[in-house]
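Running this now, will post back.
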Amino acid sequence: MAAPLVIAHRGVPGSRLEHTRPSYELAIVEGADYIEPDVVSTKDGILVVRHENEIGGTTDVAKHPEFAALKTTKIVDGVPLTGWFTEDLALEEIKTLRVRERLPKLRPQNIGLGGQQQILTFDEVLDIAEEANRTRDVPVGVYVETKHPSYFNDLGIDLNDLVIDNLERRGANHSASKVIIQSMETGNLRRLRSRTPLTLIQLMDRKGAPYDLIAAQDRRTYANLTSTAELATIAEYADGIGPNKSQVISRDKRANLKADTGLVGRAHDLDLLVHIWTMRNENNFLPANLRIGLDKAAPGDALAEYFEFFDVGVDGVFSDYTGTAVEARLKWLASKG
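Update: finished.
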């Protein structure tokens, strides 16, 4: 049986603050095949690693009086957001901030880690992988997501340019490089295809649509993109898909795992990889039939969920708990003889 990839989703945010050096380093120690940074741009055009360009929820920026006047409301992918945005701060300013836990009610174990770590640059995440690979037989890769590319394009910032320039400068934009690029939008992946031989992954969600399609008044949704015809179109510019896990195994009205949707089979028929997101240990994120107890923050039967998705044939899993994902993979492979 092929061993599905374990992709460390923002590092190991179940045990460390997401997108921080300790989080990525722990993921590597625990056996991740790839570490995943999300990238947005600073005011001076440097890629930094944050899940969103609004950083009020994940840093101590609100405690910095020198940045008080930068608090504002913006429309990002059609949604109004109020806070502080990476594109309004230079890298030197962003480096004065410290990271805090994004989900304190679900991950109180990480609250005490706040105030210690800086925001990383994309270059620094590549350095972390490079440093680890000096002593590894099997290299760990970097699986980067460009966030809100249409939004940044409207600001005159091309995230594709910044990613490719960074990889070119490091000599990493070649077919043997263990780097994957993913996006929730379609147009930027199409434009990337002629610029890189690296693996490209079209992300999908259970609701909504790629924002570039919305902006172009294209009525196609993420659900539409799972059809055989649309998957064939994706195969023209990408090497795989990254669906929300509920698009692969559906849930019933009570949030129990229900049935294989056939998406993996349709994708594989077109030689597309399938990397699902996001596997987490907490009851809050598990299907109802795999929760243990009533505490949303407590761990449920996460291993059972992995086994279900491995049986369906996914090629990789994004996980907030690398150790759990690696354990599940080992036990699943052993069960298959």
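The chain has one domain: 5-335. More later if anyone needs it.
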